[in-house]
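User: Unc-112-related protein-like. Structure?
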Amino acid sequence: FVDQLQVNLQTNQPQPNLDNGNVSSPVEDDIDAALTDLQTTLEGSSINAYANDITQVPELCDELKFLKSKRFTLKAYKKYWFTCRDLHLYLYKTREEMIHRANPVQDINLRGCEVTPDVNISQHKFGIKLEVPSAEGMSEMYIRCVDEHQYAKWMACCRLAAKGRSLADSSYESEKQTILDFFKMQRPSDGPVAVPNSFDIQLEDYLPPKFLKKLRGKVSTKTCI
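Assistant: Predicted structure:
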């Protein structure tokens, strides 16, 4: 009788799903659902953090003068608001357009371009010459900076971008400092140069002995006369 009762109870209970060898229960299903929700939440947080990192890529902004060389035409430098971002140089007419990244008048891809100094310290000329590859060949463009500090920032930026490296590269600061150190070496010293009143020169340190004997003989002869 007891055995028959156990059989009847087991028959009335819901049986687990044995299809494909998978055994599941309502409790296990709830746990799996909770784990899935947690994984989705964590993955979403990672994506958002990555997106925030992308929007915080270093960017250089300044007001500079620009000239694009054209054959048989003489153009003057014009002021634009510059920004360097993702190896591209963008030029805007106004500061507001630069801030909102609206309607750039120039979009220059710096990767692979030739970057040459266009500097004359005595004339206070701090320029950068860019030769940018294009369908017509190499296009020459010139950037004019206000002083050596502004020049160092943009020259270092252009040199790195030409090599495919952004402002986030660790060598940007050292490249900028190298340029500033070069200007310091070219600048004349501010302090007066010390000039000695008399020189203490010993002939024995510079002339061979036989010449010293002849020289001393001539001196003694003149003294006797």
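The CA atoms of residues 60 and 164 lie 16 Å apart. The beta strands are 60-68, 78-85, 88-92, 106-109, 114-120, 125-134, 137-145.
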